[in-house]
Amino acid sequence: MKKYLLARYQQQQTRFFPIEFMNDFHFVSSHLERYGYGLSLASDEVLHKYGTNLIEKAIYLFGKYSSQQQQQQQLSDDICCALKRMQGSCLKTWKDHSLVKQLLVHTQGCAFPFVSDEMRNDEKVVLTAVKSHGTLSVLDFASERLKKDPNFMLQVIQSLGPSASIRITDHSPELMQHQSFLRKAVSMNIEILANFKHNCDQEMDKDLVLTALPYSVLAMKHVPEEWRKSREFILEAIQRNYKAIEWASDELKNDCEMILTAFHHATSLRPFSLAEINHSSSTIITSDMRIMNWNDKHMTLPIVKEFGFALQHVSEELRQDRQLVLAAVSQHGLALQYASQELRNDKEIVLQAVKTHPGAMKYASNSLKNDISMATELIQRNNLLSLKGMSKSIWTNREIVLQAVKRNPILLKDASAELKQDNEIVYAAAEKSSLALSFASPSLKSDKSFMMRLVTFKGQYLQHASNELKRDKEIVLSACQQDSSSFSNASLELKKDRDFLLQLIKHVDARCMAYASRELQNDRDFILQAVRENGSVLQELWGSIYNHDRELIIEAVKSNGFAFKFDQELHRIRMEECYCGVFLGEYKRSINNSVNDIFNFNH
């Protein structure tokens, strides 16, 4: 029995530590070192007494797993879970700033709520927490002094980058009244403007938006709708960033004066001038850009290069000009709708249009919409969304659809009814996304051999099976063997089947119990049977009255050593039941016994 215990001592544990090991510091430490996790599975006594040592060892182990991202994430999650269990009590005494920052980096900032007040008031420590977590939420635990410091908050905003979502109103509301701070903040991160939408007491400042525009046109996405309709505001915005016209109302966006004003400011940033473009003496452009000859190619070409939708204003003759149209669709694909019928049938122009906007395909000629070679070209270029604009006949072509769903499985939705019944096509789509199965034909979702193949690949695909197959024990068993949580998609009939559920609990996973019928979850006799098959069933009934049922707790310990927490009496029962009383007698062993103490104990 001692040899058996030693063998068990060296085994890797997964969801819990059996009671004979959970209170053993040396076992926990050894398991952590060998397998990269185990802190969160230790007893409360071990964590509170040796938490500091174990977490320091875990930090050291990150170096060992430097090239194994999955292992590092598992270790990080393990540390975070352990810290939450002991409320991070061990971190309150940490004075080593470098060690604390290492821990914050390795745990993506989740350890920050547990550090000392001194650390919460340290700029470098807090910045490390923010960078590691990637959001401002960790500031909930930072000192008030730092959150009210505009210079520090600017460092925080800069550290998160220009695209991060930042809610200043949640953490430093008083800074929303600090105009100097706001101007600097929006120059670093345009999303600061979103704070005005969430702060009903403060209106958005136009000057602030205009200040932000030279840095990014995305400042326009936060402005109220009425501003987008304001000619005065849009003209001023265009002067700061000519691309602001894209955010104007449809009426202003299609206004010739607006387009020309935007173009004027666009070209002021270029190494050429309007005078160089305007070679025609017969065309006069006034200083306010109000007069424009839309029949002059040399005049309109540079404009549509910047604003493709300006193609709608050119003459019918120029809409037939290949160079002009190609320039327009290269800037904005939907400009294809303003091209001549002949150019909508030009493959090169259409391919260029869908490159900038996949929706442009609906404006192509019917000939191209029915062209197999066009569809093939789009697939090869990975411009799959453009296929949606093609004719229905394309979606009856087996080879086209097969290649399309291999790259974008959701395109199965557009396939013909016949191809939605094709095993190979549907399986190819399902391999990439379970959502694609929702578009498969009902007959295929009722095909046992096909669905068996799928649930063996990914158990959660059971959710798309027919109701009949959700009652099929073979199908459900195969799905649960791949992913026990897929039992949630089984029929209510099987969730009530005592014998079938006991089979799953014994041979597959105790987690299936979490999806049993309410009737069985409230049946104590059944739970007693289940616990005797697999003690960790109690873990799936967390919070229920059965977690305090002493008989069930004892049976769980006898079954596989599962216990919610360490208990001397339960430990004695486990050792007597499973190891032939190898530790019978007065129980004197403490949690800091060495491995040798365990196995040299005089039986």
From TrEMBL:
InterPro entries: DUF4116. It holds the Pfam family DUF4116. Residues 205-253, 302-344, 346-388, 397-445, 447-495, 497-539 form the DUF4116 domain. This is DUF4116 domain-containing protein.
